[in-house]
Design brief:
Oligomer: single chain
Number of helices: 3
Strand content: over 45%
Keywords: Signal
Order of helices and strands: HEEEEEEHHEEEEEEEEEEEEEEEE
Shape: globular
CATH superfamily: Porin
Structural class: mainly beta
InterPro entries: Porin_dom_sf, Porin_O/P
Protein name: Phosphate-selective porin OprO and OprP
CATH class: Mainly Beta
Helix content: under 10%
Organism: Dokdonella immobilis
Length: about 375
């Protein structure tokens, strides 16, 4: 068991309680830039009720069905100016760079250079500190592309926008690789006080790494060391092409959100093997029990602060997500999960989350000569401190 994460989080909470909490720390005005400092600390705990596969089997926990770990420790320095914005972010837990880029603002449009989140996932583009559930949906973790080095051009208004970009590898070496390009367009026919209807489409196309591609998915548990569905290595691959659809609706304290993505991995010309295709999707619903509603910015719903900071904001959520990695001779398996959760935001800096995940998966076993079901249950918690 790793005990440093809870201790570090407790120390951060105690230190902050001694002072007035704020959502971010304004440092100074340097030149034309308002410079601020932000941070995010998350500590997670997972408890597994295994079925067939030991979801924690390779973690060295002596057979224990639980895992505790610092999930993120992010430090972000930002500068906001009249013509340019810049950001430098680093995750000390994962030892990797986050957003590191410069944005040139040209009226309603902009050009951005550096490392930034790519455009093919509504959930990925939303702020990590305001995730509706502890683990992002399977479609986001599988087919969504996070941060890459590149250049993007974007334009938009209050209720519409588009981006087009080219990208390469991640800034941190030995992580995401494969140059490509992508784009996203969104439109919200309804944007008002407590009302939203949003639609979006996206596409990315990028090279596979070393002509090999592997698709595998954790069962909505970020600390799990095993995957229940897995294509294995697909050889002689050329490119991955992912198309996505997204939608969101807000009515007062209620939000419904969903995404669908389909990916095709094409083969090189020197093989007769067929291309592979798989898909994944989710639908989720969230209810702010304390009455708050959502905002809208840059094509994503934004989470509010509590109406009463001392009392906090309570949320109830439910999500159904599905993934299918079977295609032809490649039997990667299929999985569908139900997640129910409760979130509590206190003041501007603290969040407590609890999720229960019911997993239902099936994958072909060559030893059994048939599909084998594996249906574990997982209980998850998260303590979060951010400023």
């Amino acid at each position: 068991m790793k005990r440093t994460a809870p201790r570090l989080l407790a120390a951060a909470i105690i230190a902050t309680l001694a002072n007035q909490a704020h959502a971010d720390v304004a440092l100074d005005v340097i030149g034309d830039y308002e410079v601020s400092f932000e941070g995010l600390v998350q500590a997670d705990g997972n408890w597994y009720n295994n079925d067939v596969v030991d979801l924690n089997g390779s973690s060295g926990n002596d057979g224990k069905d639980s895992e505790f770990e610092m999930r993120r420790s992010e430090l972000v320095l930002k500068g906001k100016g009249t013509m340019f914005d810049w950001v430098i972010g680093y995750d000390a837990k994962a030892n990797k760079w986050l957003d590191v880029n410069l944005k040139w603002k040209l009226g309603s449009n902009y050009v951005q250079v550096g490392q930034f989140k790519q455009v093919n996932s509504l959930e990925e583009l939303s702020s990590t500190k305001n995730n509706d559930f502890i683990s992002k949906a399977m479609v986001t973790n599988t087919f969504g592309i996070s941060r890459r080095l590149g250049v993007t051009y974007g334009d938009g208004g209050k209720n519409w926008g588009y981006t087009a970009n080219v990208f390469g590898r991640e800034l941190t070496r030995n992580l995401g690789q494969g140059p490509g390009f992508g784009g996203r367009f969104y439109y919200a026919p309804i944007v008002g006080d407590g009302s939203l209807l949003h639609f979006g489409i996206s596409a990315v196309d990028y090279d596979t790494n070393s002509d090999t591609q592997r698709w595998r998915i954790r069962p909505d548990a970020d600390l799990a060391t095993a995957r229940l569905i897995d294509t294995g290595n697909i050889l002689n691959t050329d490119r991955n092409r992912t198309f996505g659809l997204e939608a969101a609706w807000v009515g007062g304290p209620f939000k419904v959100q969903g995404e669908y993505m389909r990916t095709t991995t094409t083969r090189t010309n020197n093989t007769s093997a067929s291309d592979w295709s798989g898909d994944s999707w989710y639908v989720s619903g969230l209810w702010n029990l304390t009455g708050e509603t959502w905002g809208y910015k840059g094509g994503t719903p934004t989470t509010p602060l509590p109406n009463d900071p001392a009392a906090g904001m309570w949320q109830l959520g439910i999500r159904y997500d599905d993934a299918n990695l079977n295609d032809g001779a490649i039997k990667g398996g299929d999985e569908h999960n139900i997640t129910v959760g409760v979130n509590y935001y206190w003041h501007s800096n603290f969040k407590i989350m609890a999720n229960y995940v019911a997993v239902s998966s099936s994958k072909f076993s060559s030893a059994a000569g048939a599909n084998v079901s594996d249906d574990p249950n997982i209980f998850e918690t998260r303590l979060q401190f951010f400023w």
